[in-house]
Structures are given as structure tokens and as C-alpha cells.
Amino acid sequence: MKQITIESKTLDEAYEKAEKELKATKEQINFEVEEHKHLFTKTYTVTATLVKNFPLIGLEYLKTILEGLGIKAIVEMRKKETTKEIRYVVTSDENPILIGKNGKTLEAIQTLVRCAVNEDKEANEEYKISVDCGGYKENRNKRLEILATKTAKEVVQTKLEAHLEPMNSFERRVVHAKLADWRDVYTESEGEGKDRHIVIKPKNKAK
Q: Which of 50, 89, 171, 180 is close enough to 76 for a disulfide, judged by CB 3.0 to 4.6 Å?
């Protein structure tokens, strides 16, 4: 964590020096101020600590990836203040390239951004990162919720567990969340690596 101490006659002067030396905006810096009173004047000792903006780190890293691919795009960052969830939405004329077959390229980009945000040990806990492009994931989530509901109804009727297709962790969370409040079924993740999938099980099995 980068930190500097500045002696100054005014706070404004100290803030300007801190922004210049830390190469950051005032909003990205935490200031601790000590006021020293003299006979006719005052001076200040200001300790300035750079506070890393992890969501912004992810945004800039994603833009770097897109530039490296030679793709012009607009990236929007959506973050709920009360959670550790960050959603980056990409708008581009090259959506098929960014999404890839079955969303594999988009998933790889998301993994890179997640690593960039969460690799710093200064973060108190990991952020949940989602990267979407052209509404692909939003539509995918809706299809997963429909699949989860349909399969759960079948499990309730047959009293037999059902194995869904392999999914990544984000997609599995969608299904788990959709069926979390169901009284007659529950969900579990099984398998390892690329084979990890969800099993929807009846709470009361057939006798």
C-alpha cells in the first residue's frame, strides 16, 4: 500500500501534492490530517494513502484486453454499493468474436478480469465478476432459469434426480439461486473441472 507524508501550509496544497505524487485522483486517496497551531499561523501534516479502486482496475484491464484484440467497444461497469458483485457490459460490433462458441471466449475474458481484480492481497475479500456482451449472459441466465424450473417440476413428479449439463461456477449459481426456495427439491454440484454440473434431487424420493 503506497503512502506518503506531506508538510504543508494549506490543505489544498497538500491534496494537490498527494494527487501528483501518487498519480491518483483525490477520491482514490485516504487522507489523515494533523493540524499544528503556531502563534499566528497553522501548518498541516497530511498522511496520504493510495486506496486502490478494484472495480476500476477490472474496467481498465478489460479495456486493455479489447484493445489488444483490436476491437472497438464501449464498456459499462455496474456495481451495487452494498455487495462485492461487479458486472461489466461490453457493446461492440464484434460480439460473435468476443462471445465465441458456446460463450467460451467470453468466459475466458471474464476469468482474466476476475484474476486482475482479485489477485491483489490488499482486497478484503474476492469480488464476484461478470462480463457480458450483447446480452449473451442475460439471455443465457434466462434460459438456465427456464431449464431449472422445467427440470425441477419433472423431478417433483418422478421423484428421480436429474443431472444437468456441465456449467461454469457462475451458471451453477444461477440454477442454485433459482431453486433455492423450492420445498420439494434441492440442488448439489457434482463432478470435477469441466465435468462439474448440478444435480436436482427430490427431497422425498420414490419408495
A: 89
pLDDT score at 147: 96
SS3 label, residue 170: helix
- Topology at the third CATH level for domain 54-134: GMP Synthetase; Chain A, domain 3 (3.30.300)
Q: Write the pLDDT tens digit of every residue in 64-87.
A: 999 999 999 999 998 876 778 899
The pairing of beta strand 128-133 with beta strand 73-79 = unpaired
3-class DSSP state for residue 74? strand
Q: Report pTM.
A: 0.65
d(CA 43, CA 63): 42
Domain 140-202 classification at class level? alpha beta
Backbone phi, psi, residue 132, to 5°: -120, 155
Residue 37 scores a pLDDT above 80: yes
